[in-house]
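Hey, quick one: can you model this chain's 3D structure?
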Amino acid sequence: MPLLVTDYSWTQTETTVYIHVPLKGTAAGKVDVVSTDEYLKVHFPPYLFEAFLFEAVNDDRSSAKIREGEAVISLSKTTNNMWRHLMRDTDDKIKKMQVRERALLKYQEKLCSESRSKAEKQRAERKYALETMMKLEQEERHSIQRIKDTERQRTTTEMETWQLRQKQRAEEKSQGKLHRDDHNKLRAEKQPQGHSGQSDRKQPADLPAPRTSRNIQVTFTPRVFPTALRESRAAEEEEWLRKQAEARRAVNADVEELGDLKEEDRNPEWLKNKGDKCFMTGDYLSAVNAYNLAIRQNKRIPALYSNRAACHLKLGNLHKAIEDSSQALDLLIPPVAANAAARARASVRRGSAFCRLQLYAEGLQDYQAALKIDPHNEALQTDTQRIQDIIQGSAAKTH
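Sure thing. Here's the predicted structure for all 399 residues.
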């Protein structure tokens, strides 16, 4: 049964009634308001406020505003007068139930009407959008057709002009040939008979000189990838080349910087032992520097990352400890008996960093992984049980 709200307040003018209902810490999205001309309900579980209004109101002109911690309902009066009370003075439950049912029925009809109006408005908007789109498409088709007609007319005109020009040129050539024939005939009639043999021989035509031969040297840029261009993906290859160039620049920088080191400082194993000794004496920063220099020379030794994670744990660099432990675990694949102890150490160090960051669920997974490798380790059993107790205690406290 809902709890009735009794600490409401109301004020009025000759035209409007204002009702203030406290929401008692309820969020605005959980408040349900139902208003008709003679009934008002504000429901926010488990509280309920309902009012059987003293006189009828204009529901269409009324409004409700949900503010922080309060609901303000403005009811517009149908007649300009002052109410003696906010609600009717009646204790007839049957009459109240009838008013409530009638109000809820009106409210449902109002919602249905609004829904129908909204649906009709959406249909009208979709119809208008469709008609507009069809009109635009039709205009675009007409524009394209006009362009086609103009282009066709222009092409036809050019073709007719070209044909006319060709016809004129053919006529001019035929007329010129006739004139040359007449001229040659006249020349033949004027020449003496003794030179007729020379005139009958055809003169050789002037031929162009033969072209000189030359050799053209063609060179090709060697392709980086062995596959054909049509079978490769240029974007991925370009990205690979960029990364390779960056890696080469980084290696060259390291070589230049490492050139001044002593012979023993270029030995990753010697640097690892040096870092281990610094760690044993509590000089964690020097140990980190030794491990850093060793990793720059050989990035495939898991112990360097695992030991540097232990240094970061001591220094409080928890995120770096997680990163180095994860890198060590990635290098300790596949899991075999020879690297079981190293995997257990890396898992415990990452789990410790997670727990210090209060990420107990992640830390528990790493401790359980280490315990699976070394199930008879009492210290691991104790730490794993302590983490489980912390998680269960937090869950119980939250519950």
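One thing worth noting: Residues 310 and 349 are 7 Å apart (CA to CA).
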